[in-house]
Amino acid sequence: MIKLLSWNVNGIRAVAKKGALEWLAQYKPDVLAMQETKAWPEQLDAELLAPAGYYSFFVTAQKKGYSGCAMYVKKKPQALAILGDEDFDNEGRVQIAHFKDFTLVNCYFPNAQELGKRLKYKLAFCRAIHKKMDELSAEGKPVVLCGDYNIAHKPIDLARPKDNEKNSGYLPEERAWMDTFLASGYVDTFRHFCAEPEHFSWWSYRYGVRQRNIGWRIDYHCINKMCTGVLKSASILPEVMGSDHCPVEVVLNLPKTAL
């Protein structure tokens, strides 16, 4: 089995101070894909650059302290790539790892921001990712798209849908893109197994919000059709602290040699 985790860490240095590396050593995923790392590699100490038992790979924004993605992997990918569109690569939003028997796309989707200020940019990114997923799927391997999508897809995916219908992350245009993406043959792995409400991956830092589970599910692993045959499980790990997001996980029924 191969265990893939995705986590918006809201600052890799900040989450490390809250015990993330100790948790990583205990949980031992095969891949930990991170978003919103907010750091360049040269800003990190040796322990964060290469945790014991892992290789690390980073994509960064041109602007320091902003955006960024990274992976900790037990085995080096056969190849690494970025999206290939400088409008999005300049913000360090996409990291593609080609492993032996599958491809992992690690994404930090833009936030549409208050009053939809970046909605046009967000939707352009969504279309670019959909196109890239189609291209990768055409190569004939399982493909996993993980990350912080910054979209709660359905009313079940946030605690207070009525109150948030005009808010970024739950705008009609964002949800419509998710409809289109999934209808084109991709699978929301968590909903593949779980149709129950009150499962969230992000909570505001406001006092008591996480304790009362007033959250949003905006972190996903979506897979192509070729991956459905090896999908073993999907879960959310709300007990893992350190960020305003928690990790989300998929397990693939593939041997370790698939890495």
Radius of gyration: 17 Å
Q: How far apart lie the N and C ends? A: 11 Å
Q: Structural class per helix/strand content? A: alpha+beta
- What is the level 1 CATH name? Alpha Beta
How many alpha or pi helices? 8
Q: Spans with pLDDT under 50 lasting ≥5 residues?
A: none
CATH third-level topology: Deoxyribonuclease I, Chain A
Question: What is the arithmetic mean of pLDDT?
Answer: 96
Structure, described:
The protein is α+β, with helices and mostly antiparallel strands. The protein has one domain: Endonuclease/exonuclease/phosphatase (Deoxyribonuclease I, Chain A, 4-Layer Sandwich), CATH 3.60.10.10. The chain contains eight helices and 14 strands. It has helices at about 10-15, 20-25, 45-50, 85-90, 120-135, 170-185, 190-195, 225-230, and strands spanning about 1-10, 30-35, 55-60, 70-75, 80, 95-100, 105-110, 145-150, 185-190, 200-205, 215, 220-225, 230-235, 250. The strands form three sheets. It has a six-stranded mixed β-sheet. Strand 6 and strand 7 form a beta hairpin. Helix 5 packs parallel to helix 6 (about 170-185). The N and C termini lie close together (about 10 Å).
Topology:
Blueprint: E1 2-8, H1 12-16, H2 20-27, E2 31-35, H3 46-49, E3 55-59, E4 69-73, E5 79-81, H4 86-89, E6 94-98, E7 103-108, H5 119-137, E8 143-148, H6 172-183, E9 187-188, H7 189-193, E10 202-203, E11 215-216, E12 219-223, H8 225-228, E13 231-236, E14 248-252
Parallel strand pairs: 1-2, 7-8
Antiparallel strand pairs: 1-14, 2-4, 3-4, 5-6, 6-7, 8-12, 9-12, 10-11, 13-14
Helix pairs in contact: 5-6
